[in-house]
Design goal:
Blueprint lengths: L10 E8 L4 H10 L7 E9 L14 H11 E7 L6 H9 L7 E6 L2 E3 L3 H12 L6 E4 L3 E2 L3 H4 L9 E3 L3 E3 L5 E3 L3 E3 L6 E2 L7 E5 L2 H4 L13 H11 L3 E4 L5 E3 L9 H4 L5 H10 L25 H10 L8 H8 L48 H29 L5
Parallel strand pairs: 1-2, 1-4, 2-3, 6-14, 7-15
Antiparallel strand pairs: 4-13, 5-15, 6-13, 8-11, 9-10, 12-14
Helix pairs in contact: 1-2
Length: 408
């Protein structure tokens, strides 16, 4: 938790970029739309074909803005696109550029920022910090197409995109489903999953949950590993009350690392199975998770355990506690069931959550009246009320019939 005041807090932005022409726009937007660009620092891992791709710092729409902030506030690692090994690999290099800023903000290089984004983000985190020592804001962001309408002002009642579900790909790797639009609450909404395209966290996250340089070519699975690792290190995830950035999805005409070269995710996929406890023992990781899984049996899992645990789960909470908290059942298979009442929960003191394995969360699950989690209680109350009406009516009918002959 940052001890700095909102007026002095610094933000480090991690931005992985693969041959992305929108990197320029993203960099311009984040400084132009910030209230305090002097307290924003950016770490970019750029992976370009230098013969044809435009460097993120070579063209600037606003030279004055560039001279004021970009020159002194952007740190950059440049790699050849031939050396790229997927988003997790690039995000590791971005994390090396972190210099103890108060907050860490991971984004993609095709994002646009709303006005006052830095002030809003810090305010939401500060709202959560009295209840949760390690809060994270994260979600799949709204689309680029909606940016112009909301970039200067977000109206009250704006429905915020919220991640509420997960799926499983053909290799048995869990991934996040698309977000749903939900009406905002007065505080950041409880969530479960961390999105790779947008998450805002205390800066200490970079040191407590260090980024893994050994997840080569992993795409699906990146966010689920990050989610479980953060949870076991004591972090809680929330959806912002308002949009902070807008994201360019698909980008069909832009180059992708998986089309520029052949990729191999086998070793990284085994680590997904291991960290998510999708197998009972490390040796079982070499076995197929199901008939559709193709795991590289040539990898010596035991020789990798030391490195896997170095960039592995924490000891604040257990992986089993994650499954109990989320309601997700193992083995992972479609359809993945997620405890939906989580998204209706009020803010409550961290100590009352009882996240540990000895104190199952289901025994201390707070509810909101008329939310999905208390719906059964209200049904019982209504049932008892109707029974009371029926009994009262029958009593009145029988009483009236018995004594009606005495009435003159």
């Amino acid at each position: 938790m940052s001890s700095s005041s909102p007026e002095t807090c610094t933000i480090f932005i991690s931005m992985a970029s693969y041959r992305d022409p929108l990197c320029l726009n993203t960099l311009q937007s984040l400084f132009e739309m910030a209230d305090h660009p002097d307290r924003v620092f950016v770490g970019i891992c750029q992976q370009n074909d230098r013969s044809i791709d435009t460097d993120c710092l070579s063209i600037h729409h606003d030279q004055e803005l560039f001279d004021m902030w970009v020159k002194n506030h952007v740190r950059m690692i440049r790699l050849s696109h031939k050396d790229a090994r997927g988003p997790t690999f690039a995000r590791y290099f971005c994390s090396l550029l972190y210099q103890n800023e108060d907050y860490f903000f991971q984004i993609d290089s095709h994002s646009l920022f709303v006005r006052h984004w830095d002030t809003h983000s810090i305010h939401m985190i500060k709202t959560l910090e009295p209840y949760y020592p390690r809060p994270i804001l994260s979600h799949y962001c709204d689309m680029y197409d909606n940016y112009e309408q909301y970039k200067e002002n977000v109206p009250d009642g704006y429905h915020v995109t919220t991640n509420m579900g997960a799926g499983v790909d053909g290799n048995g790797i869990p991934y996040l489903l698309g977000a749903k639009y939900l009406p905002p609450l007065s505080y950041p909404r409880h969530s479960i999953f961390i999105s790779g395209q947008m998450f805002f966290a205390p800066g200490i996250f970079v040191k407590e949950v260090p980024f893994d340089p050994h997840l080569e070519d992993l795409f699906f699975g990146e966010e689920m590993i990050l989610t479980v690792r953060a949870f076991t290190h004591g972090y809680d995830v929330f959806t912002p009350t308002r949009p902070i950035i807008f994201h360019a999805y698909t980008r069909e005409k832009e180059p992708k690392y998986w089309t520029d070269r052949s990729i191999s995710q086998h070793n990284a996929q085994q680590k997904v199975f291991y960290l998510l406890h999708m197998k009972d023992t490390p040796n079982d990781v070499n076995d197929n998770v199901n008939d559709n899984v193709n795991v590289n049996s040539n990898v010596n899992v035991n020789s990798n355990l030391k490195e896997w645990d170095q960039f592995g789960n924490g000891n604040v909470r257990s992986v089993d506690a994650f499954y109990e908290w989320t309601g997700i059942q193992r083995p992972w298979k479609e359809p993945v069931s997620v405890r939906q009442e989580i998204f209706d929960l009020p803010l409550i003191s961290y100590d009352k959550w009882q996240y540990c394995q000895k104190c199952p969360v289901k025994k201390n699950f707070p509810t909101i009246p008329w939310s999905s989690s208390s719906y059964g209680v209200w049904k019982l109350v209504l049932l008892l009320f109707f029974i009371f009406l029926i009994v009262t009516s029958l009593h009145y009918f029988l009483f009236s019939k018995r004594y009606s002959h005495k009435i003159p």
